[in-house]
Amino acid sequence: MTTTRTTAPAHTAKQAWATGLTAFAAVMLMIAGVLDVFRGIMGIAADDVFVSTPRYVFRFNLTGWGWIHLILGVLAVIVSLGLFQTAMWARVTGVAIAAFLILANFLSLPYSPIWSVVTIAISGFIIWALCVARRPEGADAATTRPPAP
To answer: Which residues contact 104 (CB under 8 A, 6 or more apart)?
Structure first.
């Protein structure tokens, strides 16, 4: 008796790590985006949570920082939804959004120093996870080739 076995492609450890890192980046970008939306709303409402710094080098008022964080937060949430589907555009855009989050939080350090440092660290992990994770070799070929006639 002979039996034919069809084996599914082996799911290697590297592919599992890539999937896990992309999911990690998606969740962390979603969290950073939602928290940045809340931070933006607090800044626009001129909440008393933020420290007042009259002699800061970058002269944005608190409402301006609120709008910047609100827009970046909304974009981060949208990109994180694309990361859950492992879209390549979302990975590239996720790195860019995380870099902008680092820049915006660095510039707003005097307004909320502890939270800015925490968000900078989270965004650094997001960039690392999106840059280290590789797509499986067969995934690029399967998604870029048009179907045979």
So the answer is: 65, 68, 69, 72
**One-letter amino acid of 80:** S
* Cβ atoms within 10 Å, residue 140: 12
* Both structure tokens of 36: 């940045």
Name the residue with tokens 């510039």: 107
What pLDDT does 24 receive? 87
Say which residues have a Cβ less than 8 Å from residue 123's Cβ, sequence separation at least 6: 32, 98, 99, 101, 102, 105
DSSP 3-state of 98: helix
Inter-residue contact 97 to 29 (CB < 8 Å): yes
Residue pair 25/129 in contact (Cβ under 8 Å)? The answer is: yes
**Residue of 69, 18, 15, 14 whose CA lies nearest to 41:** 69
Low-confidence ranges of the chain (pLDDT < 70): 1-11, 14, 47-60, 134-149
Tokens at 130, concatenated: 């999106």
Q: Which pLDDT belongs to residue 107?
A: 83
pLDDT value of position 102: 93
